[in-house]
Design a protein that fits this description.
With 599 residues, the chain is an alpha/beta fold. The chain is 21% helix and 25% strand. Strand 4 and strand 5 form a beta hairpin. The longest helix is centred in the last third of the chain and has 19 residues.
Length: 599
């Protein structure tokens, strides 16, 4: 019901324009408003229009009517000479907003078994499922070690290393699952009601969150809403027990309750049936649910990352995903509205990321895969797959497409635009933006020489939530999602290569925090060619200019596109900015290069 004023700026002299309008599509019926000219400033002509928000997600686009009769449409993919898709409109979102601290965050991801092992861990017995490993043992990627190799990292170890996070400047800690399970990754939970004793139990989790909060670091957990483990108490109560109350929590397919649907057919991961109200009550709804318990004192976690969010509630003709994500959000608002909810959606996530549930997502095609495609130079070194076969084709997010694709800088930008255009801006700002995670190889494994600073710089300066996977700041490598789960080499910080990588991350995180425009400011691409991209992040108070290049950069940006360039202040990187007599801006650098200026 609110009337929102939206504004459009057009380069001076563009057109001439006979009219500017907005076109919305409330209730799937077009609605138009006329824009009025506001005047000119800094080489731009400004227009302003009212838009009444009719739906919780209200899309709109601009229509430019030229005096010669031409029509142009402007949406989140850019300018078009023909009518555009509603899915790619700008969007005003009327659902409750995420807490403001989300966009101020730099996330650090920890895989607990491999991060740090305290002396206390020596008192824990090795579980029955585990294959013991010492901290210096190499990761074994072949089953059964793939999920059962056990290094024994614990939460007390994380507490002991919190000052490392402080030194990096990160202020949001994301822990992969901490519940008891029969694997090193713990995505096969046997209970959601307690912390794995191997990690130190509930008390260690309380101490960790209190210690993190004391250092200005928030903590979110990882929850599997798509499935439990086959050892879970709910599943065990129903397995082979027809008529048990818990049988409706799962998809049993035979009368004896011995056959069932599971995640990708993996029998240890039975799939939840979210048609069950009792499951919703126990897991999500209300103050006594699993979701609520860990957000309340004495734990007071700051939110959740939801595993396999994209498949949650979906099976064949069943699709309860929207109901589940909205229930999650509702409970979290009721318990503590200052918490965040992030979903995992590894491919195109736009249809689920419309503001009604997830504040953002761990999703790869909108940043991570394009960065790999542009800045990688695979060596084709041999490695072992999960079943012990030797492969030389570089791992690329489990996509059997012949390894890592080769993108130009222009294709990198095209991919980023394509996979973010359908996401409202507010949600995009909360989208996780990692170079790699515990489910991928590490970017550095196949990075072209000199491109790690470029990739890390883009992670920190493009719109989204930067994510550092523990070990990236040590220069670790790993060919796939198992080999990347490497024990952190504590004690190596003084080695020259490690010290250099640590300094890089500290500098870039500091840049992110020092300039709020990188958290919430607008994005405008100002130059793209095959080797380099140039963009600005803009807000009322500040504009930053960013250059990223794989090869040598030589960009000429037209006069008027970068007001204030003559007084540009270099912040990061080694590149040259010059202003020509006609006002054009010239950027040059020997590639690979990453540089930032304040305009």
């Amino acid at each position: 019901g609110d009337v929102v004023t939206v504004r459009l700026r057009v380069p001076a002299g563009y057109g001439p324009l006979a009219a500017v309008r907005t076109r919305s599509n409330p209730d799937h019926e077009p609605e138009w408003t006329d824009a009025a000219p506001l005047g000119s400033a800094d080489g731009w002509e400004w227009w302003e229009a009212p838009v009444t928000v009719r739906n919780p997600r209200h899309g709109y686009r601009w229509v430019l009517v030229h005096e010669d009769g031409r029509i142009e449409w402007l949406n989140q993919t850019g300018l078009h000479a023909i009518e555009t898709l509603d899915a790619e409109d700008f969007a005003l979102v009327a659902y409750p907003a995420p807490p403001t601290w989300l966009t101020d965050s730099v996330m650090y991801q920890v895989f607990p078994d491999r991060f740090a092992r305290s002396a206390q861990a020596d008192t824990h017995p090795t579980p029955d499922w585990a294959i013991p490993a010492t901290w210096d043992d190499p990761v074994d990627p072949v089953v059964p070690a793939r999920s059962q190799q056990f290094y024994g990292g614990d939460l007390e170890g994380v507490i002991e290393k919190l000052d490392h996070l402080v030194s990096l400047g990160v202020n949001l800690l994301y822990l992969t699952p901490i519940f008891p399970a029969a694997s090193n990754h713990r995505y096969d939970a046997s209970s959601f009601d307690r912390v794995d004793p191997l990690l130190g139990g509930d008390e260690a989790y309380v101490r960790l969150i209190e210690a993190a909060h004391a250092r200005g670091i928030r903590v979110i957990g990882d929850l599997t809403s798509n499935h439990s483990g086959d050892r879970h108490e709910w599943f065990q109560a129903a397995l082979g027990h027809p008529g048990a109350p818990e049988e409706e929590f799962y998809y049993f397919t035979d009368a004896a309750n011995t056959e069932y649907a599971s995640w990708l057919g993996v029998p240890t991961l039975p799939k939840f049936n979210w048609a069950s109200q009792e499951l919703r009550d126990r897991f999500i709804e209300g103050p006594d649910s699993v979701v609520a318990k860990w957000l309340k004192p004495p734990y007071s976690a700051d939110g959740w990352r939801i595993d396999v969010a994209n498949m949650t509630g979906r099976l064949g003709s069943v699709d309860l995903n929207a109901e589940v994500r909205q229930l999650l959000r509702r409970t979290m608002i009721e318990i503590n509205p200052d918490t965040i909810l992030l979903g995992e959606s590894t491919n195109d996530a736009a249809s689920d990321l419309q503001g009604d549930g997830w504040h953002g997502a761990m999703t790869y095609p909108s940043f991570t895969r394009p960065v790999w495609g542009w800045l990688s130079e695979p060596t084709h070194a041999p490695y072992l797959t999960y079943d012990g076969r030797e492969a030389t084709e570089p791992w690329f997010f489990t996509q059997p497409i012949g390894g890592i694709p080769r993108y130009t800088a222009r294709q990198f930008v095209d991919a980023v635009v394509r996979f973010t255009a359908g996401i409202p801006w507010r949600v995009r700002l909360g989208n996780m933006q990692p170079l790699d995670t515990h489910d991928t190889g590490r970017f550095a494994t196949n990075a072209a020489p000199g491109t790690v600073p470029v990739a890390a710089g883009l992670m920190m300066t493009l719109p989204g939530l930067p994510v550092i996977f523990a070990g990236d700041e040590f220069g670790l490598v790993g060919v796939d999602g198992e080999a990347s789960r490497t024990p952190i080499p504590w004690g190596s910080e003084g080695e020259p290569a490690v010290a250099e990588r640590l300094a890089l991350y500290r500098e870039l995180v500091a840049l992110r925090h020092a300039h709020p425009v990188l958290s919430t400011g607008g994005l405008r691409w100002v130059h793209v060619d095959d080797e380099s991209v140039v963009f600005v992040r803009e807000a009322v108070d500040e504009t930053l200019l960013v250059l990223a290049a794989k090869g040598d950069a030589d960009a000429e940006i037209p006069a008027g596109a970068l007001p204030g360039a003559a007084a540009a202040e270099p912040l990061v990187g080694d590149a040259t900015l010059a202003v020509a007599g006609d006002g054009a801006v010239l950027l040059s650098a020997d590639g690979p290069a990453f540089a930032v200026w304040r305009l």
